[in-house]
Amino acid sequence: MREAVIVSTARTPIGRAYRGAFNDTQGQALAGHVVAEAVRRAGVDPAEIEDVVLGAALQQGCTGFNVARQAAIRAGLPVSVPGMTIDRQCSSGLMAIATAAKEIVDEGMTIAVGGGLESISLVQNDKRNQFRAQDLWLVEHQPGLYMAMIETAEIVAERYQVTREAQDEYALLSQQRTAAAQAEGRLNQEIAPMPSVMRVDNRETGATSSVSVTLDRDEGNRPSTTLAGLAALKPVFRDGQTVKEGRFITAGNASQLSDGAAASVLMEAKEDERRSGPIAGLRSPAALRTRWELVRSSRFLSCCNSMGSRSTKLVCGSSTRRSLFRLSIAEIGSASIPNGTMLTAAQSRSVTPMACRVRAWSATH
Predict the structure, then answer these.
(1) pTM reported for the whole predicted model
(2) Where are the domains of the chain?
(3) pLDDT in tens, 308-343
């Protein structure tokens, strides 16, 4: 059976929407930057890429018109390389990687790129096209289809008794983990720093200026966050379809709106083994090269919530490299799952795309 492996990955830093470093950067540029860097890190000829598959949740403006194809060209790939853009809302990027894997496993491709992007700043603003966006029949018969995510979060919190206190505690833990990861340089290898021109609005004068910056770390985390500060914030949602006054979601325990992109190069496993050779032949400039075996079809690292009654074994890359890595999944409770662990169906379904954060570490890290 054919298999697909991830041989390289790259992402922009996370930029704060509207006020961050990427607030005036085209979506095509964000995606093109990471596609080019992922291809460079993989050490493959750009002409060998057989497809570029990217996910984007709101495909209009600078993320419309098949932005994956535009990103491929922006990345310097030959015009012979096609592109496909996928919309499965918040799991669009994950679905794009799973689709690229399926192209390798089931359709005979050898090398493909998968990833995702969003330019909230340039798309979700006053220029957004909302003309006849909602179908009247659906509004009448299935209005929940158009329910805002923040309202669904309020409903889920109420239904499953996820208390405000628990959410604030987890938000604080997330801030602390991010601060520690940045201080220790744990995110540096996956990030591809990106120069940009940031728009700066002067609130007092109304004047707008442009500032050249290079972002090399994620924006938005607040290391000084305290539990008392989070508890003092008021819920922000009201006047929804079913929730008239929110009780749980605040500016402190919800995720920020962000601009950014990420891409991975996937390769057929035997071809990767043929090219890589012995351990000494690793092409990555760092001692740590990420290569995760994709679960066949759309069951990418158990994150698609469709495992049925099966179990899934998480295996780290080519057999000759397995001694170099241990694979863990964070955010499943407080425990990590080591390489080779068998996940039950229940555990597999618990790993949502938003919670699945996978990292390979060298054994001597």
Answers:
(1) 0.78
(2) 136-189+201-231
(3) 323 333 333 333 232 222 233 333 333 444 444 444
